Amino acid sequence: MANRYSHFDAAHAYTLQKREHGVLRILRRIGMTNLDVCKILEVGCGDGFWLSEFVKWGADPKNVTGIDIDQDRVDEARNRVPATLNVDCGNGASLPYPDNSFDIVLQSTVFTSLLDSHMRQRVANEMKRVVTVDGVILWYDFHVNNPKNPHVRRVGRDELRQLFSGCEIRAERITLAPPLARFFAPWSAALCAFLEIFPFLRTHYLATIRKIS
To answer: At a CB cut-off of 8 Å and minimum separation 6, what does 182 contact?
Structure first.
């Protein structure tokens, strides 16, 4: 199981590359390519992979912050990212940051691990609170359930609108269903790309969420 999330695993590498392409495409579309002047927060930053990606794309580590509720994951992230990048241990439902303090706020598969609807709304409210009026929330999460994992629950388009009511939301389906990626990626990335043409085979939403001024 551990090797499934290795960068040398063909399916994991394929999925990450496609997602990176999607995020960079969105940043170009919304005109946020000068990441060195952006203040960035990741809620549920885990081991810091996406924090380090934003630094690789040009973000100033001093302007990048991660927060995670799990101290072990926070320690992993601190060991991974530059020393000037701030990683806090805390709860996404009560973010220790001022209003309107980040240009980009992102989350990756955090909400599907929150089974309680009230907790989901609290985290969404906090993300809305700390993002600037001209900023953007980048969302990546499952829109389908995993029948083999009762500890996650999907976030559909209607719930996404409810969580971020009063915001402009633009969501697209990405990410080839993981079982298909695991089966086909070791043999052919081109075949995975072909299968990804069909929306019903994509399991996640990649969304931009912006306040309506």
So the answer is: 4, 11
Which tens digit of pLDDT belongs to each residue from 64-120? Answer: 999 999 999 999 999 999 999 999 999 999 999 999 999 999 999 999 999 999 999
Residue 48 to residue 183: CA distance in whole angstroms: 27
Burial of 154 (0-12, 13-18, 19+ CB in 10 A): middle
- What whole-number distance in Å separates Cα of residue 39 and Cα of residue 46? 19
What is the distance between the alpha carbons of residues 162 and 34, in angstroms, rounded to a whole number? 31
CA distance 155 to 112: 7
CATH classification for the domain delimited by 9-211, as one of 3.40.50.800, 3.40.50.150, 1.10.357.20, 3.30.43.10: 3.40.50.150
Exposed (0-12), middle (13-18) or buried (19+): which is 175, by Cβ within 10 Å? Answer: buried
Picking from 131, 202, 138, the residue whose alpha carbon sits closest to that of residue 169 is 138
Q: For residues 145 and 111, is the Cβ–Cβ distance under 8 A?
A: no
pTM (2 decimals)?
A: 0.92
Eight-class DSSP state of 145: -
Alpha-helical regions (H) of 30-80: 49-56, 71-80
> What is the b/e burial string over 51-70, where b = at least 16 CB atoms within 10 angstroms of the residue's CB?
bbbbbeeebbbebbbbbbee
